[in-house]
Amino acid sequence: MSFFIKQNDTVPSLRATLKNGSGTAIDLTNATVRFHMRSLAGTSAKVDASAAIVTANTGIVQYNWVGADTNTIGSYQGEFEVTYQDGTIETFPNNNYLHIEVLDDLA
User: Fold this and answer.
1) What is the pLDDT of residue 6?
2) Based on CB atoms within 10 Å of each CB, which residue in 35, 38, 77, 97 is the most buried?
3) Strand pairing partners for 81?
4) Domain spans of the chain?
5) Which class is domain 2-103?
6) What angle do CA 104, 42, 84 make, to 5 degrees?
7) 93: preceding bond cis by omega (within 30 degrees)
């Protein structure tokens, strides 16, 4: 999945459906979700923040940007980290990363 946003914008939010290896949406009931994003060139996270669960039983999550998240143009990798009620952790996507592009603002 690729997502594009302009520098310093805070909308649109990043929304995704989290699915297991067989393509079935996971149940997020009683889980918590965090969103992580880092530059392709970097090793530390630019974003490590809570994400919202939009619809728990169909695995839909959303990250709402803040200004500091998109203030630097470039290519980024992103992922959602789920902590289930029993304390186990699973990261989505688990076979790659979300591709996020922060594009230059003209003015």
Assistant:
1) 97
2) 35
3) 34, 91
4) 2-103
5) mainly beta
6) 100
7) yes
